[in-house]
Specification:
2 domains, elongated
Length: 156
Amino acid sequence: MYWMNKNHIVFIIGNKTQNTPLSKEQMVEIATSIREPMWQWHDYAAYIVLFIFLTKVIYMIVKGIKFPNPFLKNQSAKERLQGFTYLLFYLFVTVSIVTGFYLKWIEDEWKEQMETVHKWAIYWFPIFILLHFAGILIGELTSKKGIVSKMIGGDQ
């Protein structure tokens, strides 16, 4: 969104080709060509995320959900926070997948809003990754010793 921004690339091309002036359209075409491999990898990553997400959801349905239910009254505040964090994560991943595939296949008046929501993932995914690592660290240092080994090797 920032270092591969089309307008930024056009600006650089304009500055570097002052002796050989190009039209704005030519510079946009060059910038689009430079960015094309990035968008191809973005598409590949989207299909991988979709596959992993569906696999995880199917696994949770078959084997049972493995995170605390935040709606149970007898849960501690920590378990409720954990459960709500997981629910938000799955909701946001679903939103990212739906908006991404919507942008790829549907052209209509909702495109701009879908693109805005889809771009929010740049912010929420790193937040969830940091929360996940913080939760693992807190678990290892408190009541869930060996949680990393269980995550990697399973319950034994």
